[in-house]
Amino acid sequence: MMRTQPSRMRGLFDTVRELGKRETWTRADAEQREPLPVVRELVFERGYPADDTAARAYDATDLERAVEAYRFFYPTVSGATLFKGFTNVGLVPNKVFGTLDVHPRHVGFGACSDTPCAPLLLDLKHGPMVVDVPPGPLMIAASDVNQRWVADMGLNGPEEGHGAKHVFVPPGYDQKLPPGLYVWTSTSNRVFVCARSIPLGGDVPGAVERLRSIRVRPLEPPATFTKPTWLDLTPLPHDTTPLAWENGLQYWRELHEVVDAEPPYDGYRTHYGELAALGIQKGRPFSPDARLRPILERAARSANARMRVQSLSDRRADRIVWSDRRWEWVSLRFEDGDFDTLTSTDLEAREKWFYQAVGASPVMFRRTTRAAQVSWLGVRDENAGYLDGAKTYELTLPQPLPARLFWSVTVYDAETRSQLRTSQGKAVLRSLFELRNKLRGSSLSLYFGPAAPVGKEGQWIKTIPGKGWFAHLRIYGPQPSAFDGSWRPSDFRELQYGQ
């Protein structure tokens, strides 16, 4: 069986029912927004570069190359950091996996606490790996180290929640495979599989146990093969992001490490050429000289600041969900998992997404009732000001929400793009948990601010003065009114003292 196209998801939600019956910047940010150098006119004599023209031209060219390369390869560096972050807390590719009930102490771009999840790290260096998915409400997506989409499985996949065996094969693999397997070809040896388990009726332990029933083995197990073991990652703080070094020279070292370790992806040949001109090339050491180092450092700061602008101050008209609201689409593209249009790759959409999230899948981005979920981004209040942690806001949601399954609102730190960490210990309000007994009446109001309005503690998320934040509103199992405009949430409305 050849690589499967995205499932129509027919019966997905029936299956589940059956199973369950103005922006605040820090000083560092301001420094990152330093202007590019003013390029003096390049002077030529008899057609040759005069004085220091050649040196200035090369510096400008290298800076331009580096800024564009940074932005293009950000998903790759972020993808590799996923592996490093999880191996730092004990996971071992192919051998030790983990289950995770996400909390703010787990630093990860766009991480959500809606369902327990299992990060499965695969390494195909020694051959194909089989992932045996049991029947049940599991939503599973796989990406390569470049964060290109590889597979959807479980409810999202061709088996539509009924269980199936999937095999992941490395780049260039051409050997015959046994029948009865869904076959997925990766463009890198490292594959990140994220499995999410729906906690039916709020049953988190049951959802975790379902994750642990996923079986992983080599296609041809060696005599020394032992079954993978599982760790509980929930108690362990960890960081799976490149935040610590995304603004400096270490970013380029990490990128070189990936390029050197993985087979080259043919679709990136031109981009590898840009890297080679900067001294990043497979099979060669990366050792930038005294001239190039500050250029690369400056490029990292500049490119990262531009991606922050694209992600949190988007100018595209197609970002708007409802014309009379400030809500935006988290993802600007919805055709597939790789941000492709009919004629090109939408690099703006790709950069916006990967600056604040990880992983991509066609099922995640669809804007129809066939989608597994739909996500909206709230960055501004009703007066177009950026959401401010020192202020208190009200968000009103007409009820019922257009979700066949469940829904949530998660608050993220604008600096880390991860769940906001406060003394409250949580950053989400969920229909399955905190709001379970409040889903009545024609509307529901949620509150966000340094202190809860009196009597609203159960429907409030704490924010921090001096910090900006944004929200993702997620609908699982979207119904038609999520797309046709007949249902829409309010904007965030600032509450004055005494309201």
Summary keywords:
23 strands; 499 residues; alpha+beta
Distance between the termini: 61 Å
| Main beta-sheet strand count, sense and barrel state | 5 strands, antiparallel
Trace the largest sheet across and list its strands: 15-16-22-18-19
| Rg computed from alpha carbons, rounded to a whole number of angstroms | 24 Å
Total strands: 23
Structural class of the helix and strand makeup? alpha+beta
Range of helix content? 10-25%
Average of per-residue pLDDT values: 92
Please state the overall shape, judged from the principal axes of the Cα atoms.
globular
Instruction: State the low-pLDDT regions, or none.
Output: 1-31
Our estimate of the beta-strand percent is 15-25%
- Please report the number of helical segments: 9
